[in-house]
Each structure stands twice: as structure tokens, then as C-alpha cells.
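Translate structure to sequence.
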């Protein structure tokens, strides 16, 4: 689909109102199980970590408990690390990469860090394979006071209630071919805009924060990830998704200004990961492994620089 093809809902040039959003919502269907694929895995982690419910979402007949996984006994002398996944529920490896990190690697880092993991911020989006929530709101543009997205508001309240200073934040995402076939056209229709960016990078890339880019931290993540999967090359204009490269495999966004999950805290170190499961060079498992490598690469860098 291109920006010349009208979206099935709405009138070109007119922003969606309540009727169009209701029409969009009526077309969404449950395609997979949050309980079976996510909650069950989180429940299996309670032997070694604390699992706490920080909220609940109710959408129609569906109810979704929201959980964080965290270090059992927080040590004030250690830095606190936050890992988030599934703020865009359809981005599968973000959810399962966060869980896989806890399952396989997190205990190795407890000597150095307190760890908080919110593996699936948008469970309705996970089940319906959606970028938006049922109100046609993008949670990853909604991390600001009085957020209209329950998913974002509940996580912000959770982190605030924990009363910790987050030192590093890893927000796990992925890009799929449906970004061009569905999500970018839907955005253009909803907001009555012309979608100019149709680039889907083939491979992993990272997004730093314009105000706190931490060049070496981002580079360490890229170096770790390229041991397990390929890094996305820039397009013909030397950009990724329309943004100038900061370095190989990394661009920067103004995270707080855009209401991104990566701007949730004032962490000195923050990164948003992006993998591409539809690449002929990758698959779902490889993308999960890449997400874990991004986290461990960043943590290893932080440990090294603190010595």
C-alpha cells in the first residue's frame, strides 16, 4: 500500500472522529492469547523474581492484568535498570525478548543492578496484533501527564510508585511489513496527513535520545547485536526511517517531546531497539535473541564503564 491508496475507513483529508474510531475498533479481532503466551511465562518466573500486578485493563469482555517482574530485594547501592516491551502490542519480539532476558540472563546481572521488567505494556494490542489501543491511540506517543492511553498512564504510575531512579532504560520494539500495509496508512487516515516515510530498514537498529544520546552506549549495543544478527544499512539518502544516522545502526529521536516510552524516565542511558522479523536474513527467534543481546550489550558496557 502507498500513500496514494485510500484507507478503508474515513474520508481522505478529514481526521477521524468517534464514528470512524468505532468503525476501526469493530474490525479488530483476537488472534492470539495473552494469557497462554505471555502471562503463563511471567508466572513461571516467580521462583527467582518478584512478579507484581500494577494494573488491569478492561476492554469490552476482555480483562488484562498488567505485571512487572523485578528484583526481589532492591539494593539502594545498585543502579536500577528498566526493560519494557510490547508498548506496541503487535511487536512480538519486544514482549518475548523482555521475558527471554529474565529467563536466561537477568540473574547474571543482579550483582550489579536492580532490574525491573514490564514485558507487555499493551496486551490488547498483543492479542489483536495492533499498534494502537482500542481507542485508536498509540501508547508509544502517549507517555506524558494525563495520558489518554491507559497503557501508558498505568506504567507511568507504576514506575512513579516504585520511587526509584532509573539509570538505564531499554525499550524493545520491532518493525514489520505491516507497518507499510496497515499501520502507516491507518495513521495517515486517522490524522488526515500525508505519510511520507515508507522506509522499513532491513535489520536491527537502535534509537537513542536526542538530549542524551550516549554515543558509546549505543555503539556497545550495536556491537553486541551484530554478533547474532545483521544491522540495518542506511537508505540511499543515508537515513533510517527518514532520520539522519547518528552512527552506524543508530538514529536519535526527541523521546520526551514525542511522548515515547523511552522518555518515560530521566534515565541517563536509554535506547529503543528495532528488529525486522520479516527480513529474509532473520526470523522470530533470531529477533528475540537480538533483543536479549541489545540488553546484555548495554549492561556490559555500563558495568565496564563503572570500574
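Result:
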Amino acid at each position: 500500500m502507498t500513500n496514494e491508496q485510500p484507507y478503508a475507513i474515513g474520508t481522505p483529508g478529514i481526521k477521524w472522529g468517534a464514528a470512524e474510531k468505532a468503525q476501526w475498533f469493530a474490525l479488530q479481532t483476537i488472534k492470539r492469547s495473552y494469557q497462554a503466551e505471555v502471562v503463563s511465562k511471567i508466572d513461571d518466573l516467580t521462583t527467582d523474581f518478584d512478579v507484581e500486578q500494577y494494573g488491569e485493563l478492561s476492554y469490552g469482555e476482555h480483562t488484562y492484568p498488567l505485571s512487572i517482574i523485578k528484583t526481589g530485594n532492591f539494593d539502594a547501592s545498585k543502579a536500577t535498570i528498566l526493560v519494557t516491551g510490547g508498548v506496541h502490542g503487535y511487536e512480538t519480539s519486544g514482549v518475548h525478548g523482555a521475558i527471554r532476558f529474565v529467563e536466561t540472563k537477568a540473574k547474571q546481572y543482579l550483582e550489579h543492578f536492580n532490574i525491573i521488567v514490564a514485558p507487555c505494556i499493551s496486551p490488547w494490542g498483543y492479542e489483536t496484533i495492533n499498534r494502537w489501543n482500542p481507542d485508536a491511540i498509540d501508547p508509544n506517543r502517549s507517555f506524558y501527564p494525563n495520558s489518554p492511553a491507559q497503557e501508558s498512564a498505568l506504567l507511568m504510575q507504576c514506575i512513579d510508585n516504585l520511587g526509584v531512579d532509573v539509570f538505564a532504560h531499554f525499550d524493545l520494539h520491532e518493525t514489520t511489513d505491516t507497518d507499510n500495509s496497515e499501520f502507516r496508512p491507518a495513521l495517515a487516515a486517522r490524522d488526515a496527513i500525508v505519510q511520507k516515510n515508507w522506509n522499513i530498514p532491513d535489520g536491527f537498529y537502535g534509537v537513542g535520545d536526542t538530549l542524551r544520546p550516549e554515543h558509546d552506549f549505543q555503539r556497545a549495543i550495536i556491537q553486541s547485536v551484530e554478533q547474532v544478527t545483521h544491522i540495518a544499512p542506511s537508505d540511499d539518502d543515508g537515513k533510517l526511517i527518514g532520520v539522519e544516522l547518528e552512527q552506524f545502526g543508530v538514529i536519535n529521536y526527541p523521546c520526551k517531546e514525542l511522548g515515547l516510552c523511552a522518555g518515560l524516565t530521566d534515565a541517563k542511558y536509554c535506547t529503543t531497539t528495532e528488529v525486522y522479523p520479516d527480513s529474509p536474513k532473520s526470523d522470530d527467534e533470531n529477533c528475540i535473541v537480538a533483543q536479549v543481546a541489545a540488553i546484555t550489550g548495554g549492561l556490559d558496557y555500563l558495568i565496564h564503564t563503572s570500574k
